[in-house]
Amino acid sequence: MNNLLVYCEIEDGVVADVSLELLSKGRKLADQLGCKLEAVAIDKNLSKIGDQIFPYGADTIFVADDAKLSPYQTLPHFRIVTDLIKKEQPQIVLFGATSIGRDLAPRIASVLKTGLTADCTSLEIGEHEDKKNKKVYKNLLYQIRPAFGGNIIATIINLEARPQMATVREGVMKKEIFNKKHKGEIKKLDFKKIVTAEDFIVNILDRVIEKSKLNLKGAPVIVAGGYGVGSKENFQLLHELAQVLGGEVGASRAAVDAGFTEHERQIGQTGVTVRPKLYIACGISGQVQHRAGMQESSIIVSINTDENAPINSIADYVIVGDVAQVLPKMIKYYKANTK
């Protein structure tokens, strides 16, 4: 009771990275709160699911294991998770801000009559003082996310209703092994008493999932371009630099909206969140919504004609200049030094 619960997404027997990231953060939050970290896994062939989840610090895994439960369908998962929350009464429940999390979490929050903060980029534990009613709330979940088009960072709290629920963007939390030898308890859920035949009314005949051709999240080096790159043709310079550095090309929303490159390369609040070893920002002003997707990069290099661009405030190195002039020199000298 009153523990922290993470809903784990599973595809082909593999726990999604976003769920492992939430377990890593959940372990730290649970330690602050002095409570247990719990996970719920719903899929088929889950006999060894503990090997994937326990190393990330989970104390308990609630398992619903049946061929009917895979792949994900809204109603069965909704029934199982909602029933589990009602019985266990966790104080916090976390979901990934994925297509599944965005489908499942709002339905559950609506039934439980509690709040839900979507697309969080940070989670913290803190307190709040209601001066009007002279009341102090302790151990609240600070649900932090960009708001008003990314112009501000909002901290949202839920004072009374429980559980406190949030969906969290993939990549914003660091995936960390808590203890490779950590073991917890597995509790099997008697889900057949919860779901009905009508919950399986949708019959999935076939599934075709097109894998992304890009791997921005796994790229050690990202050369990202913004509206300041100037044109689709100039974006080829980014591809050339990324090729010699062994990296990938990313983009800001402004560059994508301008048609300089495709949407799947978009980094930021409405795109992908990345943590490369080297992030080269070319012609990117660095508004809050873009910084939310790349500010955890190990080294940030900014190339911009505006020495006061917001991106420069978080950059480790700043080059004031025109991308069209700077990048050819970087490509030339890097090639010369690697011969």
Tell me what the structure shows.
The chain has 339 residues and is α/β, with parallel strands linked by helices. The protein is 25% helix and 27% strand. The protein is built from 8 helices and 17 strands. The protein has helices spanning 17-33, 49-53, 74-88, 99-112, 235-245, 253-257, 288-291, 323-337; strands at residues 4-8, 10-11, 14-15, 37-43, 60-65, 92-96, 116-120, 122-130, 135-147, 152-156, 164-168, 185-188, 221-225, 248-251, 278-282, 299-304, 317-320. The chain has a 7-stranded parallel sheet, sandwiched between helices. A 5-stranded parallel sheet has the order 14-13-15-16-17. The longest helix is centred in the first third of the chain and has 17 residues, at 17-33. The radius of gyration is 22 Å and the shape is globular. The chain starts with a strand and ends with a helix.
Topology:
Layout: E1 4-8, E2 10-11, E3 14-15, H1 17-33, E4 37-43, H2 49-53, E5 60-65, H3 74-88, E6 92-96, H4 99-112, E7 116-120, E8 122-130, E9 135-147, E10 152-156, E11 164-168, E12 185-188, E13 221-225, H5 235-245, E14 248-251, H6 253-257, E15 278-282, H7 288-291, E16 299-304, E17 317-320, H8 323-337
Parallel strand pairs: 1-4, 1-6, 4-5, 5-12, 6-11, 7-11, 13-14, 13-15, 15-16, 16-17
Antiparallel strand pairs: 2-3, 8-9, 9-10
Helix pairs in contact: 3-4, 5-8
Task: Please summarize what this structure is.
This protein is 25% helix and 27% strand. With 339 residues, the chain is α/β, with parallel strands linked by helices.
